[in-house]
């Protein structure tokens, strides 16, 4: 079955699209990536999305317009990859609230599935998080069962570390990828990935840059270790998994408070970026200390995997682990999340559960997503 996976993450840097030929059933799936591309958001649309994510006021009419514009952008990305049997669209998260003892979680992705189906004349699955949330889960991260199916190793303990706007991990004990996956697979959000670094680069460059290429700017500075230790005291990092987070916590307001602290210490812009980058690495390493055991290797993906300075810091702080890219295990690190949602869509189409309760904390396995059929 040819499935197009569409993904835009918390970095809000554009839409990743992958056309994937998926075969097999259940967790025993095989894939062939037939095409992939990234479509950047227009500067205006990205600005609007980031504004909503940071809590700016918006009317319902503006939300409806934004919902339409995102869906149109997603549909156009899918159309560039050619015909498919199914589209699986994650959409664009604008708000994520983890569950508490008092209420269920809440997660809102824009980019209407019905409009994508209409524009592409292709069945479209979207709204993947709601069923897991209704079952008491975090609704995130959803990619770990796909990681298990595609990246488990028969003898090695692996971690898959996505570094998008927010970071998340999947711990994969040895598995030969037949039958049911091991029951001790876990995963959770590790904290900020690129979100704070990107925010600072945008601020310091007055909007001319959106990210720190290769970590070159941060590499010119010196991280401030006491400040990193102070930031690691944030309650999220002490919270046991399952757990998830987003820009609601690690967004512009958080970045602004961090920058104010840095200014009282006379940190330069490069020192601050070095500190934010080292902080991201420290949050990942902190999460790994909560695993059943350290992995033999860490496979990086997402935009942050291309930050050579960050990757080097992770390798230094995890000396017993081999830090590589998912590319080295046969899965394109640039499009892994889009590929994952293609498989989640495939599972929904075949009524196979898409969540792992050990990851999200849901009370039961759930069929994830809603299908929208095109109307002629």
TrEMBL record:
One of its GO terms (molecular function) is kinase activity. The keyword ATP-binding applies. The keyword Nucleotide-binding applies. It holds the Pfam family AnmK. Pathway: Cell wall biogenesis; peptidoglycan recycling; Amino-sugar metabolism; 1,6-anhydro-N-acetylmuramate degradation. Keywords: ATP-binding, Carbohydrate metabolism, Kinase, Nucleotide-binding, Transferase. It catalyses: 1,6-anhydro-N-acetyl-beta-muramate + ATP + H2O = N-acetyl-D-muramate 6-phosphate + ADP + H(+). Its EC number is 2.7.1.170. ATP binds at residues 9-16. Belongs to the anhydro-N-acetylmuramic acid kinase family. This is Anhydro-N-acetylmuramic acid kinase. It comes from Leptothoe kymatousa TAU-MAC 1615.
């Amino acid at each position: 079955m040819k499935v197009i996976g569409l993904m835009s993450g918390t970095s809000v840097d554009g839409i990743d699209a992958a056309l994937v030929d998926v075969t097999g059933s259940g967790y025993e799936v095989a894939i062939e990536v037939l095409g992939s591309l990234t479509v950047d958001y227009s500067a205006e649309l990205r600005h609007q999305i980031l504004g909503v994510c940071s809590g700016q006021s918006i009317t319902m009419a503006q939300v409806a317009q934004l919902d339409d514009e995102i869906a149109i952008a997603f549909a156009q990305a899918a159309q560039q990859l050619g015909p498919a049997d199914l589209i699986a669209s994650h959409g664009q998260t604008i708000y994520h609230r983890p569950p508490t003892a008092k209420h269920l979680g809440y997660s809102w992705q824009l980019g209407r599935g019905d409009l994508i189906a209409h524009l592409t004349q292709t069945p479209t699955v979207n709204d993947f998080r709601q069923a897991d949330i209704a079952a008491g889960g975090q609704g995130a991260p959803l990619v770990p069962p796909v990681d298990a199916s595609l990246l488990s190793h028969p003898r090695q303990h692996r971690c898959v570390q996505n570094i998008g706007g927010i970071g998340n991990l999947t711990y994969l004990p040895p598995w030969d990828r037949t039958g049911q996956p091991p029951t001790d697979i876990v995963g959770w959000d590790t904290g900020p990935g690129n979100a704070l670094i990107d925010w600072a680069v945008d601020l310091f460059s007055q909007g001319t840059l959106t990210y720190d290429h290769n970590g070159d700017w941060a590499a010119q500075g010196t991280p401030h270790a006491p400040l990193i230790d102070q930031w690691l005291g944030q309650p999220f990092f002490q919270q046991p998994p399952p757990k998830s987070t987003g820009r609601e916590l690690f967004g512009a307001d958080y970045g602004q408070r961090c920058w104010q602290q840095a200014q009282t210490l006379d940190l330069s812009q490069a020192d601050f970026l070095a500190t934010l980058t080292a902080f991201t690495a420290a949050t990942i390493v902190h999460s790994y200390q909560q695993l059943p055991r350290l992995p033999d290797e860490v496979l990086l993906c997402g935009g942050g995997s291309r930050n050579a300075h960050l990757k080097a810091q992770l390798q230094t702080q995890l000396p017993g682990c081999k830090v590589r890219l998912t590319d080295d295990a046969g899965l394109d690190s640039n499009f892994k999340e889009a590929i994952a949602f293609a498989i989640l869509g495939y599972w929904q189409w075949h009524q196979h559960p898409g969540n792992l309760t050990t990851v999200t904390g849901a009370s039961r396995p759930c069929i994830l997503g809603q299908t929208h059929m095109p109307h002629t």
